[in-house]
Amino acid sequence: MAAAAALTLSACGNGGTSGGGGNTNFVTGKDGIDTVAEGHRAAAPDLSGKTIDGSALDVADYKGKVVVINVWGSWCSPCRAEAPNFAAVAKEYASKGVQFVGINTRDTSTGSAVAFEKQNGIDYPSLYDPTGKLMLRFKKGTLNPQAIPSTLVLDRQGKIAARSLAALSEENLLKMIKPVVAEK
Q: Residue 160, Cβ neighbours under 10 Å: how many?
């Protein structure tokens, strides 16, 4: 099971649709964005650890804010393409109660990750997860990150409201965030 999950996370994805059967309670839009209606959302797992700069970070500390989680690697071409969009939207939405958090994965050292963030003007923190263990914490049947890049939006209660398994344009990133920000 863990080997299959690791294999899934080892590739740098450029899109796709969610699979699996059963009652998942989410809908995939034509833009590849999966959403879950309020009242049907699953809580995000514990996402905590050291950041790429060595600081401690616990995503649960941001409860009460909308949290955008972006799974990326400095080696991933789609991640490099979407990074400027994330940097711009993170700055624009910081005053609107939105916190961005990166999860850097499969980089063998933090040096390339730090350089990537500096080069792309990313000011928000990124957890360092070189082996993908944080992604394995997501329960089966939830909107979990299954590719690199992946993006999740957590509502103010820390529940998973939206997911994309592809590099995002600024327009599609805002499509994920705005409805969750509008929730009260």
A: 25
C-alpha 47/C-alpha 63 separation (Å) is 12
Which domains are seen in the chain, by residue range? 2-14+26-182 (3.40.30.10)
pTM of the model: 0.85
Local structure of residue 139 (DSSP, 8 states): P
Give CA separation, 90 vs 66, 67, 121, in Å.
11, 10, 10
The three-state secondary structure class of 179 is helix
Nearest-angstrom CA–CA distance, 184 and 180: 9
Residue 29 confidence class, pLDDT cut points 50, 70, 90: low
Tell me the pLDDT tens digit for each residue of 83-94: 999 999 999 999
E-assigned strand segments in 98-181? 98-105, 126-129, 150-154, 160-164
H-state helical runs in the chain: 2-10, 77-93, 110-120, 170-182
**What residue type is 36 in one-letter code?**
V
